[in-house]
Amino acid sequence: MLTESKSSGVLQRVLPHAGFVIVYILWGINISVMKIGGQLWDPLVFNGLRYLSIIPFLWVYTYFYYRRSGLKLQIAGRDLALICTLGAVSAIGMEALLQYALQFSNSANGAVLGRGFMPVITAVIAVILKDIRLTWRVILGIPMAFLSIILIVAGGEHGFHLGAETLRGDVLLLLRSFLGAFYLIGMNRLVNKYPLALLVSLEMTAGALALLPFLLWKADTAYSASISGIGWLCLGYTALFATLIGFSIHNWSLSRLGPFKSSVYGYLLPATAAAAGYWLLREHLSLNQYIGGAGVLAAMYLVQKDRMQLMKDRSSASANPGTVGNVGGSAEAKHQLKGGS
């Protein structure tokens, strides 16, 4: 019985981390898929259809989830406004803004500025809000991950660089990082209050409505008929795996780890995207990319080890409530885990 309880505790600690690894593998593959699809689709039409196509499935699932659970489908007005805002931020402020910014910058700058700064910004906000406490592993791990990302995308004609010719795009990419941090912190306030099915349905619906004007403006029957089978397959993968499955697992893991620890997993994206590019697009992987990928994994270990240790201490304290040392460890865990971080 004790062994089963310990195994269950380990599984609960590991699953959210495994969830984020799966998410960023799916999203890394999606980078290559969107590179292929981007040659065949208008970006705004692609993303509009991406969100719109999964809404019926989401709401059907949400309906049966609530019916099976005997719950009443309701949400506070303030929280409804927040989730709808986050949906619009995700669709336009993160997805569409990234595609627009890359017209004035490049994908390497996008990986560093559009994604790489997000954990740094989230950490600063979380520290100000007293949601996390900085430790030596966090202080060492974040710069290590950031420098590893630069190493992955550095070099070559389209490597990371700053200059007047990319300034407009780079500013927009930084704005995306700020919006991404806002999304994570805002969603973290909701994921423990409402069923995930409802939140994902509302988020995707808000995102679809935000993109609907662009879809109505540009898409028609003739346009749809001009898209090849490969283009529709790309849309199918992005809608089903990257959006429906990806966002569901992402927000489930977010509810277990909190915004800061969740944002750090974003550093995996350039590594998984590079690996997917190698397998799907036959893109060359340099020694720098291998070293940078190893650096990202090492940084992941450092940053996440604090969380894993705290969860372990808390489980031990629950199993042995009478032990003074465990009680102290539990108090420390609760202090550092305040706010879900």
TrEMBL record:
GO terms for cellular component: plasma membrane. Keywords: Cell membrane, Membrane, Transmembrane, Transmembrane helix. Residues 20-153, 168-303 form the EamA domain. Residues 315-341 are annotated as: Disordered. The keyword Transmembrane helix applies. It is found in: Cell membrane. SUPFAM superfamilies: Multidrug resistance efflux transporter EmrE (SSF103481). The chain crosses the membrane at residues 14-36, 48-66, 78-102, 108-129, 136-155, 167-185, 197-217, 229-252, 264-281, 287-304. This is Multidrug DMT transporter permease. The lineage of its organism: Bacteria, Bacillati, Bacillota, Bacilli, Bacillales.
